[in-house]
Specification:
This protein is an alpha+beta fold. It has helices at residues 63-77, 110-120, 124-143, 204-219, 234-239; strands at 14-15, 21-29, 34-40, 50-56, 88-92, 99-103, 108-109, 146-147, 156-159, 162-165, 172-173, 176-178, 200-202. It folds into two domains: 3-103, Phosphorylase Kinase, domain 1 (2-Layer Sandwich), CATH 3.30.200.20; 108-239, Orthogonal Bundle (Transferase(Phosphotransferase), domain 1). The chain is built from five helices and 13 strands. It binds 2',3'- cyclic AMP.
Length: 257
């Protein structure tokens, strides 16, 4: 079954028929419900089916899941094709369970991919290419005034040799102030100026901070940033000049100024 790896003639994201979607396998749990691999028929007059990833909105409870679903629908709908951003194909919103349908990325989450590559080996060139892929994708998002706010290796997908930005449930259009409950903040990826109880101000620059942590995750092959002991005092640690340590195994030497 073909995977959507380059743009072909299909319409912008639109309402899809549930009857055109056939589940192939369950991939895991996403931010607002189950994620499945599926086959989608009748896409833009394509003969046969294409592989897609389908995100389900949980049916019961959790108003928060619905909010995240709606945000992801809104942001994903504003995107056009970009090779480093997961392609949004369409949605089912007229009947339950509601679905968001994306391009299927064969190799799955970057974080798992990096951890596996500790066993299989991976070239430094490929790691550098991954960092460039994410930078290209983020440059596109910022050109559309989208702030991702949850940039991390767990939210990047790998398709062939290419990284694609995914998971727009916490993304916003334009510069904003948000009050977030503390436990929803991915603290080790968040810029220190946003580690406040209310009115955190996010913008492209705060995404750049997260991108730095993501580069560290790539170069350390999926290790967790910072020691877990810093959890309650990461803001003070960063403001005091503390930083991520050199990724284990990195051969980079830093120039003293
Ligand atoms: O490593 P994975 O298979 O990649 O496990 C997670 C799981 O669903 C929960 O998020 C996978 N996943 C999410 N979106 C996609 C996608 N568009 N293509 C392929 N796998 C996906 C993710």
């Amino acid at each position: 079954m073909p995977v959507i790896s380059k743009p072909f003639n299909f319409p912008p994201a639109h309402e899809l028929k549930r009857s055109d979607i056939t589940t192939i396998a369950i991939l895991g749990e996403g931010n607002f419900g189950l994620v499945e691999k599926a086959a989608l028929k009748n896409l833009g007059g394509q003969a046969g089916a294409v592989e897609v990833a389908v995100k389900h909105l949980k049916l019961e409870g959790e108003a928060e899941a619905k909010v995240i679903f709606d945000k992801e629908l809104k942001v994903a709908s504003s995107l056009e094709y970009h090779p480093n951003v997961i392609t949004f194909i369409g949605f089912v919103t007229l009947e339950d369970p509601r679905l968001l349908v994306f391009e299927f990325a064969q190799q799955g989450e970057l974080l798992k991919y990096l951890k596996q590559s500790k066993m299989t080996g991976i070239s430094p060139d490929k790691l550098v290419k991954f960092t460039l892929d994410v930078a290209n994708g983020m440059s596109y998002l910022s050109s559309k005034a989208i702030i991702h706010r949850d940039l991390a290796a767990r939210n990047i997908l790998v398709s062939g040799d290419t990284c694609k930005i995914s998971d727009f449930g916490f993304s916003r259009l334009g510069e904003i102030y948000v009050k977030m409950s503390k436990d929803r903040i991915p603290i080790f990826w968040t810029a220190p100026e946003c580690l406040v109880a209310s009115k955190a101000k996010y913008n492209t620059k705060t995404d750049v901070w997260s991108y730095g942590v993501l580069m560290w995750e790539i170069m350390s092959l999926g290790e967790r940033p910072y020691s877990s002991g810093l959890k309650g005092r990461i803001k003070q640690y960063l403001e005091g000049g503390g930083r991520l340590t050199k990724p284990r195994g990195a051969k980079i030497t830093y120039m003293q100024s």
